[in-house]
Design a protein that fits this description.
CATH superfamily: RNA polymerase II/Efflux pump adaptor protein, barrel-sandwich hybrid domain
Distance between the termini: 9 Å
CATH architecture: Beta Barrel
Number of domains: 1
Largest sheet: 6 strands, antiparallel
Radius of gyration: 13 Å
Strand order of the largest sheet: 1-2-3-9-8-5
Strand content: 25-35%
CATH class: Mainly Beta
CATH topology: OB fold (Dihydrolipoamide Acetyltransferase, E2P)
């Protein structure tokens, strides 16, 4: 299982890459593996300010639909439009081309409260 060292993680299996006050958010390799083949991703919150742990969208796999939660509070700036026609990018490259949203973070210190790679691996029992 791939758990990049340079990212932060939530207990709900979202990842965050912080660059100043801008963050890229997606779901982890573990999450995409548990969901199976992803068929649709819906994010209708672009332009909205959401708090940490609020739902920013849903991800639909063959067997289930799951909510996706904000790892930190902020304004959703962008949805990865490539996922509209190729949602399977999340399965193939969850930390790269399969990113889901970009966020202007309200309080970058919130990212410090997220799990690092070691803590996230521990959560998964690895």
């Amino acid at each position: 299982m791939n758990i990049p060292e340079n990212l932060r993680y939530t207990k709900d299996h979202e990842w965050l890459k912080l660059d100043g006050d801008l963050a890229t958010v997606g779901i982890t390799d573990f999450a995409q593996g548990e969901l199976g083949d992803i068929v649709f991703i819906e994010v209708e919150t672009v332009g909205e300010n959401l708090d940490k742990e609020e739902t920013f969208g849903t991800i639909e796999a063959v067997k289930t639909v799951s909510d996706m939660f904000m790892p930190v509070g902020g304004e959703i700036l962008e949805f990865n439009e490539a996922l509209e026609t190729n949602p399977e990018l999340v399965n193939k490259d969850p930390y790269g081309e399969g990113w889901i949203i970009k966020v202007r973070v309200s309080d970058p210190s919130e990212a410090g409260a997220l799990l690092d790679a070691v803590a996230y691996a521990g959560l998964l029992g690895h």
